[in-house]
Records
---
Amino acid sequence: MIRFNNDYNRGAFDCILKALADTNTTSYPGYGEDEWCDKAEQIIKGLIGRDDSMIKFIPGATQANYVVVAAALSPVQSVIAADTGHINCHEAASIENTGHKILALPNTDGKISAAQIEACAAEYYDNAKPEYLTEPKMVYISFPTEQGTLYTKRELCDISAVCKKYGMYLFVDGARMGYGLGSDKNDLTLCDFAMLSDVFYIGGTKCGALFGEALVINAEDIKYRFKAYMKQNGAVLAKGWLMGLQFATMLENGDYFEKTKRADELAMQIKEAFEQKKVPFWVESFTNQQFVILSDEQKKTLAEKYYFEEMEREKEGTVVRFCTSWATKQEEVDALVLDISKLV
Amino acid sequence: MIRFNNDYNRGAFDCILKALADTNTTSYPGYGEDEWCDKAEQIIKGLIGRDDSMIKFIPGATQANYVVVAAALSPVQSVIAADTGHINCHEAASIENTGHKILALPNTDGKISAAQIEACAAEYYDNAKPEYLTEPKMVYISFPTEQGTLYTKRELCDISAVCKKYGMYLFVDGARMGYGLGSDKNDLTLCDFAMLSDVFYIGGTKCGALFGEALVINAEDIKYRFKAYMKQNGAVLAKGWLMGLQFATMLENGDYFEKTKRADELAMQIKEAFEQKKVPFWVESFTNQQFVILSDEQKKTLAEKYYFEEMEREKEGTVVRFCTSWATKQEEVDALVLDISKLV
Amino acid sequence: MIRFNNDYNRGAFDCILKALADTNTTSYPGYGEDEWCDKAEQIIKGLIGRDDSMIKFIPGATQANYVVVAAALSPVQSVIAADTGHINCHEAASIENTGHKILALPNTDGKISAAQIEACAAEYYDNAKPEYLTEPKMVYISFPTEQGTLYTKRELCDISAVCKKYGMYLFVDGARMGYGLGSDKNDLTLCDFAMLSDVFYIGGTKCGALFGEALVINAEDIKYRFKAYMKQNGAVLAKGWLMGLQFATMLENGDYFEKTKRADELAMQIKEAFEQKKVPFWVESFTNQQFVILSDEQKKTLAEKYYFEEMEREKEGTVVRFCTSWATKQEEVDALVLDISKLV
Amino acid sequence: MIRFNNDYNRGAFDCILKALADTNTTSYPGYGEDEWCDKAEQIIKGLIGRDDSMIKFIPGATQANYVVVAAALSPVQSVIAADTGHINCHEAASIENTGHKILALPNTDGKISAAQIEACAAEYYDNAKPEYLTEPKMVYISFPTEQGTLYTKRELCDISAVCKKYGMYLFVDGARMGYGLGSDKNDLTLCDFAMLSDVFYIGGTKCGALFGEALVINAEDIKYRFKAYMKQNGAVLAKGWLMGLQFATMLENGDYFEKTKRADELAMQIKEAFEQKKVPFWVESFTNQQFVILSDEQKKTLAEKYYFEEMEREKEGTVVRFCTSWATKQEEVDALVLDISKLV
């Protein structure tokens, strides 16, 4: 069986395993106050083109999401997100558990628009800020989205402008940042995210690290006592250098960017195979996640050799996701492409 | 400089690094639903002598502590703990952040007694359970304590009996479990903890793993939907097998027990050195943490070659902690012992 | 100016004022442990036909709503409600502030259907109860709804059956219960609510009391330590007898039912006047709240003599609410009806 | 039976009942946006000598306490209080339920000192503000305390100075403010509280109103969106004018000050009677609460004719509280004094 079910089913880049082995007997200060975290911080600041951002490493993406929300919002403030946003439907209501309402907007291919956000914010801000409503104070988007799609630079600029207009924070969930940056259709850079968002992260877990997300906090307000919020929510790893070391290593040698880009290319081969076969797409994606609608028989055939994720049942068939990753091999894709071509 | 400042300043057992390398290209199911977690679960069930316990792996100890509290207690219930308990003074009020009051009892060398716990519980339970008081529903103790001391089997039985009397859960924080079990003075086993507590954990982070705590949940009530609480609090690692693999490896080959026991022995050498020199102890500990009170000059001298932790300032000098770990070498201790012997 | 803006703009039934005066110098036990609360409890148990329900008095409806949710749900459980539900859009995210997600369903005239609820619950319950989703554990509906509409007995039975099927609590917000019961179109009784719901309340604030809601808790699980939840959330009034006295008085002498019924009748006169004038309705209501869409000129004309509430702007005009209450007088309605008839 | 068990066992000042009757048919805007609240606000601003304070009316004291804390503190901030503070032991952990730790200091006769507060704050502020500690950001004291004692102006100035030094808010719980101001031993005025605290309240419930506490918010930071916090916590009364009317009436005609002062005088008669009889005091109080230690026989004798509150059991007997109120009559006190004089 070959796993195309997700992008976090194998260990880590070789360079990371090697770095772990090389440093295993060295002793370090705890809680992220070590030289590896410093080094990773410097590398990231170079990549984003900002020296004033705060860089923090957090073990997992769900943690990263709700710790940012907890640190940024007061109990009477809420966060705007797509209804398909990861925080709205995949994280067991962790945002609400911290006491904040998600104002969910209907998505289009996983995205929300500046116009939608503006309309939602205006209901509160342009309408006497009534005390019976929460204050929309943050906009959460994912890049790439949960459906593999990408915001363009134009779209991100527009969303950023609406956020500035109303004094809302813009938070970009970059759990799959590598695959987003690596896409042929992408026109955004890490520097853009650093200039246009108040906080975003460079995801490690899904992009080649064992675990870890690198948070980039640009807004002054969110920096204050941020590590206390991390600590309170169990997001300060005792052996924090393990994350610094991973990010320093994979960002410095370029694996983070190249191997995720390669995953996108492999995904495009799968995409083309389905297109050739006229298998309908659920959404058109140019990143490592491909969503198609399979007939029962097609699904059964492919399930004999491949793991993939079933999303939901529709009239025409089952929506399934095929996912490549930094670890996917050309021969695995070749096999899949061949089997797709034989589908009835 | 040699680090005696804590027991989490180096990587992991060699066997763990090797296992990571061996499995790096294998693909696994996510979120702890893999064969390594299964294997670790079976090993732990063997070690604790209970097949009905639920075993869950959580990246960090602060997370483990508050997720258990969140899952076990309702908003009107509280947890009894020593005032020196880790949850009361080292975790940024994470328990209160989940909405629960800690009823802190004065410690004796880091411990609380069954009699103290009974008196605290009785105020509520034997007194009409007034609605203006929270219901003490859990007792939290650490083994070893934050001061390196150990509960005896007699003491644990007594505490467990009080908990049963009032229907309270007994929760044992075993972040340093290895060092507790390995102490010459210890008379408790993992089986005892499995029989006498409702939930406890076998700490990995401080006992030779890269990260991870193995939760053992014995009480039926706490098992229900426990993984949802983990998910909600960001404690479900995407690549969950990384924890299963570590626990399976270090528990199976015995490193977990032998190397922490060895750390205790090394700590006893340091203890003896301080005793010889008549340096006063802040508390007498038979585990890997040694607390002594150093004069300013003694502190200055030792600080030239060693990292150790300053706890608090007292009249007679500074309370400091010297900590050995699974990674401490005999020659490091030899050097320290020699330097202690030269102190003025 | 005559106020038709809401149903809580005047004091209380005369009988309540008199009872307050009569008892002003009598001393009572505090916190609702008095003879008036006992008496009101007995009266309510008679009216609902259940002796095993728990009756509690809470100063306000927002409090009643979130205290019930806090007491009934664990952190990983959520509540299903109409998107127009009071808890979803008029209470400053108090439900999320207690840590619970609202699963908002699109309303039809303020109502949600058993089929909608079943589909929402099935996503979780019929689908392996995944840990990344919250458990829908309560259904919240309002009677009458925020748009003045009524669930029929058939509809309530169907919703109750879905709740039973999935083990979810049914919670009926009865802030305007009197106006619902009093409507010509209503076929539900207090006994029905007591049999079909797990918890509901008989609203006082909007139905003739100075303040206070009478909670009826039928589900055993929610009764446990309920008063502690009230206390923790500031919902135990020190002079609790003030609420017992009001409910005992207005329920016993029938004012609660008769004067709200009368308000419905007056609302029907207003409804007819608008119908005659062919002013479009936003929603058809048979209770004390009437929603019509006024042209700018009509709105301006009526606003000269009457207070009414502006809801939202639509293409055809402004949605406004005219609200009668237990205190509305025939001559006030006569004046309005006349002025409506003169509208252009 | 005569009730000396507390100060909230009877209705309200006659002037309040009269005002309710006089206004019962008048219609008002809801949610505290009415002319009575405006009037009460103006009266209070006159009494406190500050025009820039925000005045808000909240139904109950527990609500007032935790809403202030919720509005003022972030999740990583905590509140310093006496271990006997009302928020620490009489409010079902409502502060922790909002997510905040109480740093409880040992009381002396219900009070804490500036020196104690400074030492507690210094542990955090003078010690590198470690992320594993919460930030003490508020000091909560009660005036009078739960034991009837009073802070002097000197003491309040000192506490205020420590708060300013560390940037902490000073919050004074004035649930019994009237009895504090009215005491012969008091040297503080409402103007002092307005100058020295960041937020305090003038208690209504225990001082002659049916219910209601008048919050005075002096700190700019706490004012922001404060009403949203009230709404979210169910503390915005629909018929808000009921509180404005009560405060306006009792503050304007002086009942609030005179009748609570009279209660203090009556308490002094009881105090003297116990002194004469050499009944030991638990704490010496010069306000309306008197705490004495009764032998079993004395307790039994007095319990035949009087309600009083049993606090706790001590070796020498039972600590009990006798409480006068604005409604206590001279003849009730005369009877008690006579019966005390006859005790054996």
Note: The first strand of chain C starts at residue 2 and ends at 3.
---
Amino acid sequence: MSHPHPDLAPPPPLAEGGLRVVALGGLGEIGRNMTVFEHDGRLLVVDCGVLFPETEQPGVDLILPDFEYIRGRLDAIDALILTHGHEDHIGAVPYLLRERPDIPVVGSRLTLALLQAKLAEHRIKTVPVEVAEGDRRSFGPFDCEFLAVNHSIPDALAVAVRTAAGLVLHTGDFKMDQLPLDGRLTDLPGFARLGAEGIDLLMSDSTNAEVPGFVTSERNIGPVIDDVFRTAQERIIVACFASHVHRVQQVLDAAVANGRKVCFIGRSMVRNMGVARELGYLTVPDEIMVEQKEIDNVPPDRLVLVCTGSQGEPMSALSRMANRDHQIRVTERDTVVLASSLIPGNEESVNRVINGLTRWGARVVHKGNALVHVSGHSSAGELLYVLNVTKPSNFMPIHGEWRHLRAHAKLASLTGVPDENIVIAEDGVVVDLVDGKARIVGAVPAGYVYVDGLSVGEVTETSLKDRRILGEEGFVSIVVAVDSTSGKLLAGPEIHARGAGIVDEDFDEVLDRIEAVLRDAAADGVNDSHQLSQLIRRTVGKWVNETYRRRPMIVPVVVEV
Amino acid sequence: MSHPHPDLAPPPPLAEGGLRVVALGGLGEIGRNMTVFEHDGRLLVVDCGVLFPETEQPGVDLILPDFEYIRGRLDAIDALILTHGHEDHIGAVPYLLRERPDIPVVGSRLTLALLQAKLAEHRIKTVPVEVAEGDRRSFGPFDCEFLAVNHSIPDALAVAVRTAAGLVLHTGDFKMDQLPLDGRLTDLPGFARLGAEGIDLLMSDSTNAEVPGFVTSERNIGPVIDDVFRTAQERIIVACFASHVHRVQQVLDAAVANGRKVCFIGRSMVRNMGVARELGYLTVPDEIMVEQKEIDNVPPDRLVLVCTGSQGEPMSALSRMANRDHQIRVTERDTVVLASSLIPGNEESVNRVINGLTRWGARVVHKGNALVHVSGHSSAGELLYVLNVTKPSNFMPIHGEWRHLRAHAKLASLTGVPDENIVIAEDGVVVDLVDGKARIVGAVPAGYVYVDGLSVGEVTETSLKDRRILGEEGFVSIVVAVDSTSGKLLAGPEIHARGAGIVDEDFDEVLDRIEAVLRDAAADGVNDSHQLSQLIRRTVGKWVNETYRRRPMIVPVVVEV
């Protein structure tokens, strides 16, 4: 198995007739999936998603792929193919379309509908190309065939890309529920047919490659939800992802069976379920739906609220209910169901929500105590089926952190893919498929681009480093006004400390020290504000460290008057 | 079941002959365990531990119980009993002893030895009273009997406290390994004997009350570790808690069996294992130990490193190895074993370590893929045994978050403890045992006391709120010097922004706005620096929000010259 050297050089030009594959996201992380294929001078992009920040990226709203690699060649893009409608696959599309609005965007009916709703908020119009499983369409030199895959959102697709360089199968995200609720199976026969034709490169979803066995059918959640409904005392509050149409369908079915009304709460839930219902992916009997403003008219034991917030997002309705900071006051007669996964990184906040709800006595049902969630991604058992059926010449695990990519690579090796044909790449690593062999040939920049408020890319690693220091230690700012010629102190020093845990009474000592330092400096004829700042920074930093053993950010300001 | 009203009043005086129980920590959280018993005007304290901060408490080193409730009555403390040597039970002892050094500290041999090592670092001398299982000792009006319990550290004790008010059994932390490595079983016959005598109040460890079934024996880890040792290519690096003597013993045994040398790495690991070895709790053949400076002389396939860092602590050796920021450079021939639990809140950092090590190709063995950890706390199955054997009149779940306390309360109810005699309290809630009935009678303050660097309690909730804002959004400081009489601008405005993601080129616009605002103010005769600060704050805050949709901390500084 080949894997990237930490210091790969920029790649050489792509060999004539070869196919270049560069993931700008999704390799080494779960999220911001984006793969750029290049052949014969043209580009095909598969997915364009966002990554949600961890605590290491404080204050950031979203993380985008870095488009720099393709920025000079946007006109060479023949299509942007979206495998499905999750944020980590479509969330960055508005940002790419800002740079070239007329990129043809290709996807299934639901995927495009969810994208349109998002683009409307960004006031962007697009050129949608609707495809369905079984379709085969060419975009420039890329001959694309679409295959049905089963996932935690309807209408997901895998894409097979044929070029002169060979046949690539990109699975997108998928699992292989053998009894899917909508009857739409992952197209294993299609995968087998491509395998028989000869797959030169398989790129397959690694998210659950470490998990042994098989994912339980989504269908098995139904009876559990039904049981919760039958035994609930009064209100039922179900939190799940706003795109999980099948999960919501099962909740609606249980509501119908148990004579309860349903109210969708939260902008994204209302929007997405509206789209899904309109397109026929969600079956909602009119008579069971109520608007949020009407819920007080429904007896608590006849009511179901379906909301987001299953990841403990602090501003979500569910978090606010847990903190008694919401008009809906949770009591010991309420049942709350967290019908979703626990995305790594959200454990603390979800735990806080569970404890908050439990404190008020609510019964909390979650994946830790009941089968109210199954994963949307194939476990190792299913991945082995795909590897065995497709028999790829080369294999590249995608969509996963290092641990998942390595685990998937091992599965490929076990099924007989030669180790030298297994390519473990990370974001930005350039893989060329030439003469039927996939090899790492270099790397291009693929750093994080941060969205924070309205700005894209203006919050940098330096800003985040500052935030981490400020967030851990606070700051101490010292302001003095000095005479610009003599350097003599005219006013101050004034100290402003925030988050540093330093009490005002302690300041006197350091103020004396600063004054002494400035007196000496003036006596020595030092009047340069930069030099004076440095003197102040050193004095205060030393004092804080001696006194408190802490290292807040020291911000000296010397105003020359 | 009775549980605290959010706004409980201060408690009435304790009834004659009654026993008052107040947890200053450990109820509603996992950590800083501390219970204060009061009878006949005297106090008995059980445990005095620390809580480790979550992301909600940025920059904080430790969280202590608030001693305010007992501060005025320290002389009334007849003893401080320590159930075992974990940080969440002994970590706050130095801070309590600072306030009264001659409190008699009671504990088992290993517990006191681990405490002494800690106190030596704080330069505190104590009055230790060594006890062992089977001992019965009176401290003031508190007649205390000690019973053996099995836990993830040797020499743990439960304590039965007899007063005129009745018999209380406090389990400490425990599990019921029926084949413990040291043969020291949790004293179920002792519990049964107390049950026959009549337990008026059972206080029992709730940490794993939500987990069904029974904890696997520690003994079952041995073969798994042995298998890892037999199949490891070269170096083996084992990370575990620095107090888990039995776990380390199993690693040492595997090292002996597989002809490997062992090196302890990290201050706490070296110190604690030294103590455990000296007292005979750890058996270490001299010939297998090597010092860290000698490890380069040992062939990699003959070497085992035992270190801390299993929770992904950023400065630990293991984290630095994962980042290639340590002299030990992990390669694809190394095996790393995380032989420990994953403490809630540490998932992100542990995942980062696993991914880092995996990136360099190391084989990483952890509780997710092998039986290299078992919990130290009883699961529901074991807790039921204790409830059934002790048959308490009153029950109070301790050591747990709300979800754990409620789950444990439910188990008690299922075993027949009347609901009205099950008391779910949180920190500071006052429970009185009077006439054989335990009831909530009020509450006392029991907030978090933060240790940050050298200061205790100086970092407040306000500091933390500031840190959270600064950590998410950074700050923008605007400094002006004005004439103290006319309010006219003499110098500035100068802008200093850190962590706000605002680029210098954007400043011009807001500087113009500030100047205009100050001009208008001067024209209106406004010269009060507080008023000018408010004007600047509003101007800049509005600009940042309009321009960036962000809310950094705005820090206006008006220097009057």
Note: The domain at 461-560 of chain B is CATH 3.10.20.580 (Ubiquitin-like (UB roll)).
